[in-house]
Each structure stands twice: as C-alpha cells, then as structure tokens.
Amino acid sequence: MTNSIDVVVVGAGPVGLLAAIELTLGGAQVLVLERLASPSQAMKALSFGPLAGEALLRRGMRTAIDDAQQRSAHAMQAFTQQTGADLGVRASKFNGHFAGLSLIRRDAQVDPDRRPRHVDQPSLEAMLGARARALGIEVRREHEVTGIEQFDNGVEVSWASPARPRRVRAAYLIGCDGGRSTVRKLRDFAFPGTAPTLTFYQASADVDHPERLLPIGWNRTERGVFCYGPVPGRLFMLDFSGPPEDRQAPVTREEIEAVLRRASGQEVRVKALHTASRWADNTRLVDTYQQQRVFLAGDAAHVHSPFGGQGLSLGLLDAANLGWKLAAVIRGDMPESLLSTYTAERRPVAEAVLANTRAQVAILRPDPQSGAMRDLIARLMDFDDVNRFIGEMMTGVSTRYDLGQRQTSHPDVGRLAGDWQLFDGTRLFDAMQDGRAVLLDGTADRRASQHVQSTTTQVRCLSMPEGPSWLLRPDACIAWCSEPDCTDELAGLGEALRRWIAA
C-alpha cells in the first residue's frame, strides 16, 4: 500500500494545530484527527511564554495575539473594578512568579521585552484554528484513533468516527493528544516518572464575597494554596490532602467550595460554577520523542505540575522544532537523520521544566520546613543574578540547543532569536511567515547571500548593515553567525547549511 498522505497529526489542540501549520508551510500534506467534537472551552492556561509567542509571530499571528491580549486586558480591568485590586502597579514591575513568589523583576532581565503573552487557551486554539483553515489544513473531529501499525516506509492509522471506522496510510505520525495520549499508549513509549501527591483545581465561578480572597496573587496558608483572579471568577487552588481518587469524575460546585474554604480559611460560598477541572502533580517524561516514524509532542511526551504555566509553551515549542524538520525530510532536502535532533534538542528542555515544577511544589507545601525553604528562596531573589536566572528559567529564554556542529564558539549559536527590528524598520518574524530559514547578511559585498543562494532556495536572504551575519533556522534557532575576529567571514556557514537546511 502506498502512502496517501505525508503526516497524520493526532490532536487538534494548540500543539497539534501548530505542528500541522509548520508542516503545511514546509510543503507537507497533513491530516489532523481530533477525538473531541469541538474545541474545549475549559479554563486552562491564561498565558504562554515569550518563546511560544514568538513561534506564533513567525507564522503570521501578530494581529490575532494583539487582539486577544487586548481582550485579556479588558477582563483584568473588570477584575480591578470588581475587587479594587491594583493590578497595574504589579504588572509594570514584575514579569511572572516562581512557586507563587511574584518577584521576577523585569529590570533584572537581560531582555525585558521578551514577556509572556496574556492569551487564554481557548483564544489561542481559535487563532491557530483560523490559521490552519487559511492554509487549507483538514481537521476531522470526532475521530478517535484506535490502531497504529508501523512499516518500513510508513504508518497505518485506524480510527472510529460517527460515520464509520476508517484507516489511512501516512509516511509519519505525530501524537499531540495530551497527557493520556492514545498514540503513546498504542506504541508503548516508556513514560517513567513520579506518582501524584496532591490535587490542583482551576475553575470559573461566582463567589459571594470575592473581597475575602484578596490580595491578588498566590496565597499560601496552613491548609493549602489559592489564587483569585486576575480575571473575574477565576480560581486556582492546591489541595495537599492527596491526589484525586478519580481525576475523570465531574468537578462539582460543592467540591470547589469545600476546597476553597479549606485552603483560604474564609467563609465564602460558590454561588455558581461555570467550568472546572482538576489535575495532579504526576511528573513523567518519555525516554525518546521518536519511535521510528511515530513522534510525540506536548503533553503526550511530558506531564508535570501546571504550576508556573510552562506546559503550553513547552508543547508549542516542540511543534515548532519538529514541524520544519519533518517537512524538510519529506521534501527530500534533508536525510532522516535530521529527525534525531528533535529528541536531542527538546528532551533536555523538558527535563529542566519537570525539575523546576517539582521544586515549586516542594516549597508550596504547607509545612514549616517547606515554608523555611520558601522564605530563603524569596530572599535570594533579591539578588539580581538569582532573579535573572529564575526569570530566564521560567520564561525559557535561556534555552540553548546543543547543535552538535564544530562552529559553536559564538555564545548565541543554538539560542532562539527574538523578534529583532531590522535596519529598514520591519520586524524579523514578519519575514519568516512562509516557514523558510533566514540569512541576515552583513557582508560588504553580500558574499553570504550569494553562497546561500547557490546552495538552496529554502533560505530568505535579507541585507543588513555591514557587520555580523546570522543564519536562522525556520524555528529561529541561530544556526550560524560570523566571527568578527575570523579571517574568513563565511567560516562554518557551509557546514551549518548542510546540517540544517540542504544536505
């Protein structure tokens, strides 16, 4: 049987949609299968990190992000009017939290403009869905994967749907189907880690005395942790009495009220419950993101405590890393060996996130020992170097991939470039919307552009004022930059092109 499609993506959440967008821009034919009949409206993430936001900017969603952030600002303004909490002062000075310690200062960061994006997950899914439709990507809902069989040259995927069971043959499969991933289970990926110890709740509810739940931010008590805001009705709580007996059981108004009263110690009533969900802090990571022609991305590959809001960004950057690589292999520009760099680059990033989420849970526990450690961390964050380290860890901007190439002496090689303003006033990411790599050419006679154009058509060459030159992969990872003290200003460029763009 011949392959009838290039890639099947399982899961139409943010990670699956971005993976499909990346693949389509790279020329691959993609089919997305989603178990749910419609996008989830459950309250989940309220924001995502700067690197994830930049991945969306590179794919033409600047206006959609700005509009969604404006809606978030209006919701926060409504919260201010409802409660009298002054969010503006804190927002102007701080840039996130560690274990509820909202002490990450913008003035301590190397690049304070690389900030989280205040866009809730339903809005994010809507903008990704619109972009996918504009690209003609087929998303089939109410399609639940039931079988996966691998062959030397492809993957056969079976599913059940309201119409009838069907199957398709594809060259590759990407599982973006969440923490209880069917793809991961069917292909028996090893998923080691630690068992859950507590229960997280997030809800949208009407509370009779919201003023009793202030101040805004994370409040740690002798009985748990709770947060009200920063939009009306939003509740987040940690219950340290143990993991949920049945995580899939419906979350009731009575359950949310009991946990809220216990954690806050306040006489408050939940008058109405609009949405609610519960999680645990089970922390697991697959040993590899690839099993022959099957890949995992997002929560299918890693689960952890949601504290710190890093999971969504982590998954989106998985998609941004894998999509262009898989498309390059499908086009025939690169060998399949390129795909091994996906696990090599992304798994260490996930390991670091899992470690810091475990640390955050440890200093949130309501015992005296955890409290003493928490107080010590808070004092250490007064030091600029510590504050910068924690801030860059939480936002991910310190990420640097090991590119495994000889020309890596420059400290920026392997890092993800920000949305630089180019010399003509345009933005770098606006020039990357077609999914191609970019050369920023600072050579006097445009020798770098001539060299690149003689090698591949998959790089957009942009002229810069005379100075350093930069080669950026489609995911904005800096693959090469010229060394100012090197006699050959193009040294290493050919190797970088062969390794990442055109073998």
TrEMBL record:
Source domain of life: Bacteria
GO molecular function: FAD binding; oxidoreductase activity, acting on paired donors, with incorporation or reduction of molecular oxygen, NAD(P)H as one donor, and incorporation of one atom of oxygen
The entry's keywords: FAD, Flavoprotein, Monooxygenase, Oxidoreductase
InterPro entries xref list: FAD-bd (IPR002938), FAD/NAD-bd_sf (IPR036188), RIFMO-like (IPR050641)
Every FAD-binding domain range: 5-356
Coiled coil: none
Cofactor dependence: FAD
PANTHER family to which the protein is assigned, alphabetical: BINDING MONOOXYGENASE, PUTATIVE (JCVI)-RELATED, TRK SYSTEM POTASSIUM UPTAKE PROTEIN
Descriptive protein name: FAD-binding monooxygenase
Species: Pandoraea oxalativorans
